[in-house]
């Protein structure tokens, strides 16, 4: 008994040491954490296609992985690079022209000062306050440029790790399942639920951003907003902002349109954005994305806030996954408890049958 107790303690110590080492490694390599999480996301998305090529069609492993990486670069990395190439210079150009910013702001200030309803809130903004705000935003531009470099570094890291994950797919999955101290049924449930959450967020975020950006771009073009493509891209990018989302961009655009004198155009654009840009979000969430994984909207909102703070960009995917884990673990607890009850009932039945058999023989 003492030897068994000592053996269990040694196993716990080894497990604790292993987890501690993993934690230290993740902290020290936190710059590449998004790349690691990105590789997990890409693995979940490409796993079935890779196994189909290798196991069903008997294709070469290396050639299959090269094909998958090529498709990822074409469909993800290049579009992201193009968007950043358009947005970053435009944002720099817009913020550097302080006179144009003040001119646009003056139109809004006149609207506020002449509106009887808005006068009640005593909203006063001086040119100095506006310039202070602009300077504060400009101070974030270097970090934005740094973020672009970090994004591409993490894309390379994700693709590099993905290669080794795919080449050893079956072995890796088998070893991961061995580490989970739960029943076979619970392991299947855990992996299925997390894969569905990752897939839903990985597909859902770009789909929502693209759809809202395109619809906003069309609206801006119809109602005469200058640089409609730029503002449409910004609106699509703002879809990741928790709570406010696309309103963070299209509300100021609409207010400026009204302040510039095009009252009817601004009001119609506001209605257009509220109904179509905001509406497509609800339509996609309750149709396409709900089929992938039934995630509560509150988990999505607070998960994104939590994820961005902890994981950076990849927190858009793993934040909601992390926030969903308590619910998944509770369901696993219920599965384990039901299996335990079933096992106890079966054992009791076996004992009862054994006793009856003994009586008969006696």
From TrEMBL:
It is a multi-pass membrane protein. The keyword DNA repair does not apply. Keywords: Membrane, Transmembrane, Transmembrane helix. Signal peptide: none annotated. It comes from the Bacteria. Its main location: membrane. It is found in: Membrane. The chain crosses the membrane at residues 13-45, 65-88, 147-167, 195-223, 229-251, 263-280, 300-333. Pfam families: AI-2E_transport. The keyword Zinc-finger does not apply. Belongs to the autoinducer-2 exporter (AI-2E) (TC 2.A.86) family. PANTHER family: TRANSMEMBRANE PROTEIN, TRANSMEMBRANE PROTEIN 245. This is AI-2E family transporter. It comes from Kaistella yananensis.
């Amino acid at each position: 008994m003492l030897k068994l107790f000592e053996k269990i303690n040694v196993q716990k110590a080894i497990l604790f040491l292993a987890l501690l080492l993993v934690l230290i490694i993740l902290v020290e390599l936190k710059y590449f954490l998004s790349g690691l999480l990105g590789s997990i996301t890409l693995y979940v998305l490409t796993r079935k296609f890779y196994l189909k090529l290798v196991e069903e069609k008997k294709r070469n492993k290396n050639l299959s992985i090269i094909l998958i990486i090529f498709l990822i670069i074409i469909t993800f990395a290049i579009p992201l690079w193009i968007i950043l190439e358009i947005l970053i210079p435009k944002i720099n150009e817009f913020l550097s022209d302080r006179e144009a910013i003040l001119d646009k702001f003056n139109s809004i200030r006149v609207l506020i000062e002449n509106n009887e309803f808005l006068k009640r809130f005593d909203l006063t903004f001086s040119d100095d306050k506006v310039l202070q705000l602009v300077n504060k935003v400009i101070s974030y531009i270097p970090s934005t440029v740094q973020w672009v470099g970090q994004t591409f570094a993490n894309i390379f890291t994700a693709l590099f790790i993905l290669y080794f994950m795919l080449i050893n797919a079956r072995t890796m999955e088998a070893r991961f399942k061995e580490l989970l101290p739960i029943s076979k049924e619970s392991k299947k449930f855990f992996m299925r639920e997390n894969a569905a959450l990752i897939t839903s967020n990985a597909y859902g975020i770009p789909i929502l951003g693209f759809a809202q950006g395109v619809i906003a771009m069309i609206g801006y073009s119809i109602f005469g907003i200058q640089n409609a493509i730029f503002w449409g891209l910004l609106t699509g990018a703002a879809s990741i902002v928790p709570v406010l989302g696309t309103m963070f961009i299209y509300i100021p655009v609409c207010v400026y349109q009204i302040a510039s004198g095009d009252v009817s155009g601004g009001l119609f654009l506001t209605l257009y954005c509220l109904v179509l840009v905001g509406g497509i979000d609800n339509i996609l969430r309750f149709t396409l994305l709900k089929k992938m994984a039934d995630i509560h909207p509150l988990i999505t909102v607070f998960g994104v806030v939590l994820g961005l703070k902890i994981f950076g960009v990849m927190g858009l995917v793993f934040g909601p996954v992390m926030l969903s884990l308590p619910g998944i673990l509770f369901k696993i607890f219920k599965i384990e408890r039901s299996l335990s009850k079933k096992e106890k009932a079966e054992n009791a039945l076996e004992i009862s049958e054994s006793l009856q058999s003994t009586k008969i023989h006696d």
